[in-house]
Amino acid sequence: MSNRIWVSWLTRWGIVLIVSLITLAPVIWVLSLSFKPPQEWLAYPPTLIPRQPTFENYLVLFWPGNPVGVVSEMVRTAEPVTRAFLNSLLIVPISTALSITIGFLAAYGISRFGAGGNFLPFSVLTTRMFPPIAFAVPLLVYYRSLGLIDTHLGLILMYTTFTLAFSLWMIKGFIDGVPRHIEEAAILDGASRWRVMFTITLPLIRGGLAAAALFVFIMNWTEFLFALVFTSRFAVTLPVQVSRYAGAVGRYYGPQAALGIVASIPVLVAGYLIQRYLVRAFTFGLVK
Amino acid sequence: MAREGQILIRLENITKEFNGTIAVRDLNLEIWEGEFLCFLGPSGCGKTTTLRMIAGLERPTRGEIYLRDQRITDWPPQRRNIGFMFQNYALFNHMSVYENLAFGLWVRRVPREEIERRVRSVAQALELEPVLHLRASRLDLSTMQRVALARILVIEPQVLLLDEPLNNFRPGLRELMRAELKRWQYQFGRTMVYVTHDQEEALTLGDRIVVMNAGHIEQVGTPDEVYQRPATLFVASFIGRPSMNLLPVEYRISEGRAFLVSPDFEIPVDERREIIEKSRSLPNLILGVRPEQLRIHDPQESSPPDLIRIPAQVDLVRPQGRKLILDVKTRSGALLQMVVPSIRRFVAGEQLEIAFYPHQILLFDPQTGKGLC
Amino acid sequence: MQRRMRWIQWLNDERWMGQLLILPMQLLIWFVLIIPMLIVIYLSLVSWQPIMGVDWWQAPFAGLRNYAQALQDQRFLTALGRTIGLVLVAVGMEFLLGLALAIFFHQQEFPGKRLFASIILYPMMLPWVVVGLCFYLLFLDKGPVNYILISLFGPGASVQWYQNPVLALMTIALADVWQWTPFMFLVIYSGLGALPPEPIEAAMTLGASRWQIFRYIVFPMLKPVLMIALIIRALEAFKIFDLVYIMTGGGPGTSTESLSLYLYRTGFVYGQLSYAAAMALLILILVAVIARLAVRPLEAELEAR
User: Fold this and answer.
1) Is there a contact between C305 and B83 if contact means CB atoms under 8 Å apart?
2) Which of A95, B215, C39, C142 has the most CB atoms around its CB within 10 Å?
3) Do B82 and C217 touch (CB under 8 A)?
């Protein structure tokens, strides 16, 4: 009897261990690589813990010509990633905020007023199916005429719109969950509909809005294709910078790894924050 | 019909704990072969939990379960050959009625011809032949109930466990289905354990009733026993509609004779002296008398000497078909309920004399709740 | 004073309020999505490249020539086939692994389950490019994967992952599986959690073994959820771009080029915008048709309930 229990205990923890390892391994490897000095990058056999850990790889990202160490010599000609980093920090939160705000307004309109009829959700759904390239081509043409290429505004507009469908869907779900009679009671008390929307409904779905915001943040932060096409110098975002850097510094794996880590931290933080909402968001959507 | 002496299932010192809450405590029970046993009690009393433990869907925290002297406490439900009927029937909605019925046999790899034979015979008995090919999700409620029942009958289990299966029915239909269930139990001769919170249902259906409260058994007995001789205050007040009248009384001895005294009356209780004096809560006791046992006495008429008469005033009149429920208030302010045939009309505020015989009353110990006599 | 009141009243009027609320969204959608859609259709029917020097609205009409060309384009067709294959393999694996994980998670209770869940879920949140970078670094000639292979199987086991198209595709598929299995897991796990427990308990009392219960009761009940998950993930996987771009750049040569990558190159590297437009629309039609076909059995399932 206890033998059986022992075996199942072992398999259970065995599975947990293996899966955790597989999931964590790639990132751990890159993390360790990012702290390795050049001589250890391709060291053979590869080691997990750097023998001479250094922060240089990180330093070099922002300050290529720094006088500190060896790495800087190699990547002296590369661009500092500061610009891309700041761009992402600027563009992503703004587009996220816009997406959530506009999404909230629209979701409220659709939920409580049936605005847009049947056309709106349908069109929203179909745009999800399009390969993004299909939009990139005309947008390029169109943006060029409008002078929006390589601008922050241009990118913000796109990011906001692309995530709008998602914001809408998620927030509408939350708004639908707020019983109408609460709002109606306030209206009977004399409040205007705008007031009701902002002072009653909004606070009630605060948690849902936060969750949606975090999801949208992740989606925007990791967006690559459009950033690649539409930016070249000024509005470059971090993901694009990662790929450029990889091309620019070729075999200098240390800084590349460091950049990868730097680019991931904000989303990891955001991801950690939405842990609890993940399951709920998915059951929400699927029940529909 | 119950064959006393043939024990099918025995529960010994069963305790069930959920996260620190004790759902069932030290329960001991014998279930007899062929009987229709009802578990009765309010929500949360542990009756469903106990049923699930018999089925194997829950494991007792402590205690043992025996099936014909075999210890099955650790057996998974699959092994026990017990039929369980759920409150919402839990049919396999994606399967046809036939497949639902055949499932139990099919998973045990019974040959196809035999499955066919057994399914058809049960379907015929429960009049399910017309719907055999239909998808289970398309049935109406009463048909679903029959399918759920048929599904268990097909596997010919040792005992059938039913968890409030009639909850979904509106009152008229509910009585009909009740009668059907009783008929089937008799017809198939199987042991049935039935859980309900409706005391009328339990009294109608059960050969024996197990009254439960807060995780333990208050009384086990036939409907008659439970009704006429409730073992505890809880049983007395739970069973019967309207519920039993309970009044606090004091036990006094005056001039060598024993009396039960209340602000409204005095009852001599010499015959029961011995039993009463065993109670540790003296002099306080609780007296119980059923609403049907109270009658209206015409003050003009003569009355037997032992009839206790109490002047009272009508408070509320509630018609109940051919009967009336009268709420009356005694001089001391105690509220009593009585049931009288609706021969005449009553008016609130009317003065009456109500009467009852002392041998009809029941006495309870206020601290332990136990019945004395 | 009067004017102001009327203005406020109008703002509050329900009929207008709804329209006003969706206005910003309408504007954006029209501006960024719908108008470009129209432009794409236009572009696909003309023959225009920026190099030509003329403005796009003056490009010469070309009818369906671009489409015909696309249908005969070997590179296009192979990219299409390759992408489909990639999707089938990757999503297939994600499905199986996700299913296994979800079942495991659903049935087992153990301390630290929450933590374990967090660990499993985070790959979904990483930027694709970072995932691509990670896996690229892992499969380098002198990287950890080869190291493990050599320690297990001897010196000859080292593989040059990026020289061989099939192997390179495998690494890409692996990266995708690593990143998106959590998604499948999440969806299926939620689905499992939403299942009513009673039919399962009923099956237990009727004598079914765990495997039988799963196969004949749980799985059929899960089908709609599974199908939705598969469709959503497949549609997304079809668009795969970031991973391919950063891991192999389509190479060696063009042997690992995904559909999106080829389109990107055609439009933005070679400048053949009209051609790219036509191909994009072709893909769109293809996806729409397949999605419609895939959804049909799903609707049938839901109907029957």
Assistant:
1) no
2) A95
3) no
**Chain C residues touching A272 at Cβ < 8 A:** 118, 122
DSSP C20: H
Name which of C107, C205, C213 to mutate to probe chain B: the one with the most chain B Cβ atoms within 10 A of its Cβ: C205
Interface predicted TM-score of the whole assembly (ipTM), two decimals: 0.79
Closest CA to A123 of A146, A106, A144: A106
Q: Does this model's pTM top 0.80? A: no
Count CA within 13 A, CB hemisphere, residue C3. 0
How would residue A285 be classed by pLDDT, with cut points 50, 70 and 90?
very low
**What single-letter DSSP state applies at residue A37?**
-
Does the pLDDT value for residue B39 go beyond 90?
yes
The pair of structure tokens assigned to B18 is 């959920």
pLDDT in tens, C225-273: 888 888 888 888 888 888 888 888 877 777 888 888 888 888 888 888 8
In this structure, the dihedral spanned by the alpha carbons of residues B338, B339, B342 and B344, taken in order and rounded to 10 degrees, is -20
Instruction: Quote the pLDDT of residue B298.
Output: 79
Q: Could you tell me if B83 and B47 are in contact, meaning their C-beta atoms sit under 8 angstroms apart?
A: no
Residues C282/C70, Cβ–Cβ less than 8 Å: yes
C40 vs A: CB within 8 A: yes
Interface of C with B (CB under 8 A): 196, 198-199, 201-209, 212, 216-217, 220-221, 304-305
DSSP states of C56-116 as a string? GGGPPB-TTHHHHHHHH-HHHHHHHHHHHHHHHHHHHHHHHHHHHHHHHHHH---TTHHHH
The predicted-structure confidence for C138-176, as pLDDT tens digits, reads as follows 887 777 888 777 777 777 667 778 888 888 888 899 999
The residue whose two tokens read 């779900």 is A173
C248 interaction partners in chain A (CB closer than 8 Å): none
- State how far the Cα of C63 lies from the Cα of B243, in Å rounded to an integer: 89
> To which residue do tokens 């920090």 refer?
A89
Over the stretch C205-225, which tens digit does the pLDDT of each residue have?
Answer: 988 888 889 888 898 888 888
Tell me what pLDDT residue A9 has. Answer: 80
Q: What is the mean pLDDT of chain A?
A: 79
Interface-testing mutation among C133, C183, C266, C272, with chain A (most A C-beta atoms within 10 A): C133
From B168, B141, C192, B164, select the one nearest C200 (Cα to Cα): C192
- Find, in chain B, the residue whose alpha carbon is nearest to that of C221: B94
| The token pair that represents A266 in the structure block | 């904000």
SS3 label, residue B286 = strand
What is the arithmetic mean of pLDDT over B19-23? 86
pLDDT, average across residues B267-271 = 81
Burial class of residue A89, CB neighbours in 10 A (0-12, 13-18, 19+): middle
Q: Is A104 within 8 Å of A216 (Cβ atoms)?
A: no
B partners (3+ CB pairs within 8 A) are C
pLDDT, average across residues C73-96: 90
- pLDDT tens-place string over residues B286-332: 888 888 888 888 777 777 777 888 888 888 888 888 888 888 888 88
Kindly list the residues from chain C whose CB atom is less than 8 angstroms away from the CB atom of residue A270: 125
At A286 the pLDDT is 45
Instruction: Using a CB–CB cutoff of 8 Å, tell me whether B138 touches chain C.
Output: no
- What φ, ψ does residue B254 adopt, rounded to 5°? -135, 125
